[in-house]
Write a sequence for this structure.
């Protein structure tokens, strides 16, 4: 494949200041841990910063700080006052949006167009939305029998993945604070920098010390955190494998957990659909964020008579996608987040080809360094193929066909996951029937990958349990007894 030298846009470094080393954010201040690990730019493999590796003692300190804040100032604060902090954080995220967008793109590899237009504004929107709930919780219909106001759990451990680092943080921290909990959050090992910038925002907002604590580290830090006896509730987003390990670890304890896990969404196109619109939806569904999205439309189910036409229009559209420098605002597809993820994508695509699928990708030129994978379409995929059953978490679309709506439903539901699905048809009655039949937490109709803080998100089956967003998302952060800490 032809190669070119990658040079991030020069102004990017002046928009955000990246420190050479970062400490852990505990009790309102940054503290250096004993060990450090590098976080790199996946587009060129250069080290962006050295970040602290939190050990068990750091976990103790962070949980203790969160407990003190919960039993102290935060626990005594009214919802209206808590709401003001959330509003302040939301405004600061907006004010510092360019810094957050650049930092996220450098640390994650996703296009600046996406961090600028999706990750950062939607993260701010989550804080605005939950700020509004903080003083209205008694109207959320969540109070336990005999009580008037829903009560928080206490100290919440939150562990998040690398695909939407700031947005996942916002999905977790905003409802936890709105409902009166305090937080210890662990970002993913490969994308810690926007969480640490968020810690600065907490300081800037004068959030009382200990209300939000950020522990950087790897899976061991996450494990020590979720297993800590001082934690009352766990909110996890990540792989089904780690979700299972967490469920096992807390079995027999009183800890509550919400698990947002993997997906293998079907994007279903009927022969009466507006095909050009559907092709745009397919492209957005699987190539947004390089396909590293739990709800990505990674299985295209296309009705037999329009298969050839859809595939050929899709190929024409993919040839126009701009793949490369994530810092270029015209880029559509950036870098894959890590070498490990790139290897996983390559292994699964090779397995698909070995099992009989045909791979197609437009010609792409990639830099000599960094982690890259072209937008790829696999046709001739059978339901038993690994690429039809396993989550690839990359820019790879597996195409299958169906004849009847019943067959589409059977194929779409034939997965251990149940997170999302898309339906493309002009018939309103069919949309309603499909939405009823599909075993997916979110069903998009004639659109895909739409997110809004008011709308609950979450899965069935191995996609986890609990919902995030909307009134439903608050439910996970309040107890159903009247004995939770009163405020
Ligand atoms: P994981 O390997 O599961 O990692 C998620 C987080 O858990 C990371 O912070 C990770 O730390 C930490 N972790 C690892 N082992 C742990 C343990 N034993 N106990 C506690 N925490 C532990 O997933 P990933 O590779 O970051 O993300 C990709 C997966 O997440 C995909 O399967 C994707 O579908 C899923 N995902 C789901 C959703 C929703 S909303 N359902 C959203 C995004 C992603 P390290 O980073 O250091 O490993």
């Amino acid at each position: 494949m032809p190669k070119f030298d990658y040079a991030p846009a020069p102004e990017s470094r002046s928009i955000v200041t990246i420190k050479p080393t970062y400490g852990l954010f505990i009790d309102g201040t940054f503290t250096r841990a004993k060990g450090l690990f590098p976080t790199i730019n996946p587009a060129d493999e250069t080290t962006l910063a050295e970040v602290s590796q939190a050990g068990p003692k750091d976990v103790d300190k962070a949980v203790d700080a969160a407990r003190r804040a919960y039993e102290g100032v935060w626990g005594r604060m009214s919802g209206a006052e808590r709401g003001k902090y959330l509003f302040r954080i939301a405004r600061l995220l907006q004010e510092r949006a360019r810094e957050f967008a650049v930092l996220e793109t450098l640390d994650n590899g996703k296009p600046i167009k996406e961090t600028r237009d999706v990750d950062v504004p939607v993260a701010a929107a989550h804080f605005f939305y939950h700020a509004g709930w903080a003083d209205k919780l008694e109207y959320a219909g969540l109070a336990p029998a005999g009580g008037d106001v829903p009560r928080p759990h206490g100290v919440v451990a939150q562990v998040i993945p690398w695909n939407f680092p700031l947005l996942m943080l916002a999905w977790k921290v905003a409802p936890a604070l709105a409902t009166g909990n305090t937080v210890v959050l662990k970002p993913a090992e490969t994308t810690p920098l926007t969480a640490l910038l968020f810690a600065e925002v907490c300081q800037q907002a004068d959030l009382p010390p200990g209300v939000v604590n950020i522990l950087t580290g790897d899976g061991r830090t996450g494990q020590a955190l979720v297993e800590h006896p001082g934690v009352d509730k766990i909110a996890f987003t990540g792989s089904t494998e780690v979700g299972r390990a967490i469920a096992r670890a807390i079995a027999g304890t009183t800890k509550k957990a919400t698990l947002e896990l993997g997906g293998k969404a079907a994007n279903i196109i009927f022969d009466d659909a507006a095909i050009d619109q559907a092709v745009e939806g397919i492209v957005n569904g699987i190539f947004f964020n390089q396909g590293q999205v739990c709800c990505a439309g990674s299985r295209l189910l296309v009705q037999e008579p329009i298969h050839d036409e859809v595939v050929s229009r899709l190929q024409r559209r993919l040839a126009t996608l701009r793949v490369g420098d994530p810092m270029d605002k015209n880029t559509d597809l950036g870098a894959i987040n890590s070498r490990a993820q790139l290897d996983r994508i390559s292994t699964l695509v090779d397995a698909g080809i070995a099992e009989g699928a045909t791979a197609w990708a437009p010609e792409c030129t990639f830099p000599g360094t960094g982690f890259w994978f072209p937008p790829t379409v696999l046709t001739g995929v059978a339901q038993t193929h690994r690429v039809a059953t396993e989550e690839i978490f990359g820019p790879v679309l597996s195409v299958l066909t169906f004849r009847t709506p019943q067959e589409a439903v059977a194929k779409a539901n034939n997965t251990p996951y149940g997170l999302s699905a898309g339906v493309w048809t002009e018939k309103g009655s069919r949309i309603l029937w499909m939405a009823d039949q599909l075993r997916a937490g979110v069903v998009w109709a004639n659109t895909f990958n739409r997110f809004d803080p008011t709308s609950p998100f979450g899965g069935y089956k191995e996609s986890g349990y609990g919902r995030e967003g909307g009134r439903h998302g608050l439910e996970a952060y309040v107890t159903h007894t009247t004995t939770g800490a009163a405020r």
